Amino acid sequence: QLEGRQLRKSGDELLAKLDPKTFFRGWVTEWEKDLTRQAGSRLHSFPVVVEKDIHTGELVPKVNFSEKSENLQNEIKHLKWLGYEKDIPRSVLSASDEAKQRYPFAIAIKTALRSYQSVRGLVTPELEPLVMPQLVVVREIISEGFDVKLKESTKVSKKQRIRWDSRDLADWVTRLSDA
Question: What is the DSSP string of the chain?
């Protein structure tokens, strides 16, 4: 019957749109493009980058860990539950494992930088001399991530910039959080 054929055609079109393999292939393609883009960028290996603040125009340090990397862990976990474990490319799995290892450090760095910036915003010029020693300590620790020596610093520069794969990353993050 005519109505039955139209209903069947509509049902087949809906099933074609809901095909999970098509969504999965698109997801894999998107992640592989993103990983290729990240591999070409040297900045991807550093835990802290300096960016211009949109609102103030000042240069501020920010953690170099995207929310996409955070979401990748969960997406991989859900895909494994759905039975796609064998279909996930090794490059995406390794990116997920890398993100899982970096996540605790990224959260600690993000919290420390947010605290520093909020305190820095509360310090008035009259109060600055009282807290300047503590601010200099935090700046020195952050500057180790950029391999620069501050003018007011008394420390000797290490000539080594902290990277995600550095052995000193855990110690550096701990010192930054404590300061």
Answer: -HHHHHHHHHHHHHHHHT-HHHHHHHHHHHHHHHHHHHHT-GGGG-SEEEEE-TTT--EEEEE---HHHHHHHHHHHHHHHTT-GGGS-HHHHHHHHHHHHHHHHHHHHHHHHHHHHHHHHH--TTTHHHHHHHHHHHHHHHHHTTT---TT--SPP-S----TT-TTHHHHHHHHHH-
